[in-house]
Amino acid sequence: MTETKKSLPKWILIVSGLFALMELMVSVSLCFSPQSVLETVDLNAKGVDYVVYMWAARQFALGFIFGVATFKKSIPMLTIAYIFFLVMFIGDLIIGISQKENSLIISAIVMCIISSALIYVINKRK
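RESULT FIELD:
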């Protein structure tokens, strides 16, 4: 029995690589220049640095996973990464709605659509 390996279109690898770079850059920005990302947050308040570093670690982990999945051209890994991405942006959508922040709502909806579409495209030829 031979198993034919399904190949990924190059554009999916490019998009996934860009997401990996984006997540890694956000992580680095949060660690070294959090004021550039968190303009409305009092970074001198007690415990804020802890939360910022936790967020940076999450972004780094996601960027690393996207990078490895893209490099390996792994359909299961990319699927899991995009599912995580989708769940993360659903959470951002809920936060945006609760905070009545239109920019967060719009960006979360766009990213949910992109994540859902990529999950579909990656897995449609099984």
